[in-house]
Amino acid sequence: MVDTPAEKSILPSMWQVPQLFRNRLGSTVGRQRAMAADGHLLLVLHAPPKPDEQERVGRFHWRSPEGEWTSNELGKGVGALAKHLDEFEGRIAALDRKEEQAKTAEDYFAVLDQLAPLYRAARNLHAVLQEARTMFPEYLEIIELRNRAYAIERTAELLFEGTKNSLEFHLAQRAEVQAKSSQRMAAAAHRLNILAAFFFPIVTLMAILGVDFARAAENFGLAGDVFFVSVLLLGLVAGGFLTYFVVQAEDDSDRSGEEKTRR
Fold first, then answer.
1. Overall pTM surpassing 0.85 (yes/no)
2. CA distance to 86, 96, 122, per residue, from 160 (Å)
3. For site-directed labelling of 242, which of 48, 168, 206, 221 has its Cα 20 to 30 A away?
4. Within a 10 A sphere around the Cβ of 216, how many other Cβ atoms?
């Protein structure tokens, strides 16, 4: 047996609403929206999204032509809509406190992860109440609810932007610290390169000639002291030239990098 549209509808079966509402809803909630027919007003809203919630929970608020409000979850009367808005305000206030206590990028991201769907739902909630206000301008009770919905949307927007800016600042600050650390490491490596270049010729000469200066001096026909001083001076001069070439090569590399950056 095939279900009729009325049987498949997710609206409460006891509601005496126009069949058009049931036909348009079907078996899923869909987006938030307002429906009007024969003086009836139906608001299809979403409960405040919970963390990691994939499907939205539908809440329906029906106003009959006689001015009576009924909801499927929050009771009767226009106060049910006010309770719906209260839940949004409470969730946003809780996330605002979390944002104030956030210290790490993970903390800020956790707030944004929960706030993003809540902000979208609040924005659509305000649009629905504005649409209902346009459909039925004589329903004065909607004005205050619409204004509250706008305030909720604005608060969520400011919190979202503020949290996103705080996250970006935190990431930029961390990148700056890492850049300074890399700069210090590069400077230390540069100094080590200079020291290695300066002493490399002396170490090489010592390795070639050996540590027995007396025998090496005899081979060259020089006195031991003269030979030692000669080797030392030769090593220092060669180290100076090598250091100059190392520093010059690094300076040329830095200038080349700066030119490429300017281009």
1. no
2. 19, 9, 12
3. 221
4. 19
